[in-house]
TrEMBL record:
Gene source species: Thomasclavelia ramosa
Entry EC no(s): 1.3.1.31
Residue stretches making up the FAD/NAD(P)-binding domain: 28-186
Protein name: 2-enoate reductase FldZ
Gene Ontology molecular function: any one: 2-enoate reductase activity
Enzyme superclass (EC): oxidoreductase
Oxidoreductase in keyword set: yes
Lineage: superkingdom: Bacteria
One Pfam family in the UniProt entry: Pyr_redox_2
Cofactor(s) for this UniProt protein: FMN
Keywords carried by this UniProt record: Flavoprotein, FMN, Oxidoreductase
Length: 222
């Protein structure tokens, strides 16, 4: 999603760099192709490296089919088309980074987070930088920690916290409860080649630098 985020232009540049390096070398990239067992058997490789990433977590809420409700991966390409008052369910890194993108566009944003801390999985320096960034948007941003989403209705987002149940009115509601490793799908690709290894987010959620480091050393030791 780097191509959609204002604060990830360096990541986009790195992706573009990798694409350029691929184009300079004799590397076949099969776009829009699912790596099935049958396909890998046909390719008949000696080693299979599995880096199929992570998928959005889908928690199903009552009323999620309403027109104003959507999942974060669907809204990134159309952030500018969202209305002025947006509610985000999920205050992890995914939800908070989405909130920043919307705040930069002048939206009013409410973040609903079940735990007592936003971006709790982020590095301490990441969270420190995030706090400084969010202070710029104090008048636009509301963060409700220790608050659980119960579902959606025509009136808004229904939540519960220590103050009881309430309705958060908004124009758009976005479900952004994080990502999960595609480990199960990765394990299905084992046993085809003499050697198989997984790395990156399909093994464990992490950062680009960690996945790149793992990829380098795995490839160097083949």
């Amino acid at each position: 999603m780097a191509q959609h985020e204002m604060h990830k232009q360096e990541l986009k540049a790195y992706r573009d760099y990798l694409e350029n390096q691929i184009n300079k070398r004799d590397i076949q990239v099969m776009y829009k192709t699912t790596a099935t067992k049958n396909l890998l058997e046909q390719l008949n490789g000696d080693v299979v490296l599995v880096a199929i990433g992570a998928s959005p977590i889908r928690l199903h809420f009552p009323g999620e089919q309403l027109e104003y409700v959507d999942y974060f991966e669907n809204v990134y390409p159309k952030l500018d088309s969202l209305k002025d008052n947006v509610c985000i369910v999920g205050g992890g890194q995914v939800g908070i980074e989405l909130a920043v993108e919307l705040l930069e566009r002048g939206k009013l944003v409410t973040v609903i987070e079940m735990t007592d801390q936003i971006a709790s999985q982020g590095h301490i320096l990441y969270r420190a930088g995030l706090r400084r960034l969010l202070k710029r948007f104090e008048k636009q941003l509301t963060i409700l920690i220790n608050s659980q989403c119960l579902g959606f209705s025509e009136s808004g987002v229904k939540i519960i916290n220590k103050n009881g149940e309430s309705i958060i009115k908004c124009d758009n509601a976005i479900i952004a409860v994080g990502m999960k490793p595609n480990r199960e799908e990765a394990f299905k690709l084992y046993g085809i080649a003499d050697e198989t290894m997984m790395f990156g987010d399909c093994e464990k959620l992490g950062q680009v630098v960690g996945a790149t480091n793992d990829a380098y050393f795995i490839a160097a030791n083949i």
